[in-house]
Design goal:
By secondary structure, the chain is mainly β. Helices cover 0% and strands 40% of the residues. The chain contains no helices and 8 strands.
Length: 97
């Protein structure tokens, strides 16, 4: 019989749904509406993100560093808006399934 393992601290893990892909550029770009309470964001370039029903990202919004996934509590039906910091790239938005 295999030993059971108990983890005392929560892990930043989700059962991934289908990712939405948004271009990161010099102007704010919105995602489609995301129907999940948790999202994982992964950007290929440093950027800034904001959430809402009709969000518009600016350089003053939440910074998201390149190649470092972040998990956020999310309001189902809202969107993610993104704007570049200094270079273009891609933002992957993965909802919890």
């Amino acid at each position: 019989m295999k030993a059971a393992y108990v983890i005392d601290t929560p892990l930043p893990a989700i059962c991934p749904g289908t990712a939405a892909v948004v271009a990161i550029g010099p102007a704010s770009t919105q995602s489609v509406a995301i129907n999940s309470q948790i999202v994982r964001l992964l950007a290929t370039a440093d950027c800034h993100v904001v959430f809402g029903e009709d969000p518009a990202a600016t350089g003053n919004d939440t910074p998201l560093p390149a190649n470092l996934p972040e998990y956020f509590v999310f309001v189902p039906g809202h969107k993610v808006a993104v704007i570049q910091d200094s270079a273009t790239g891609v933002l992957y938005i993965t909802p919890a399934a």
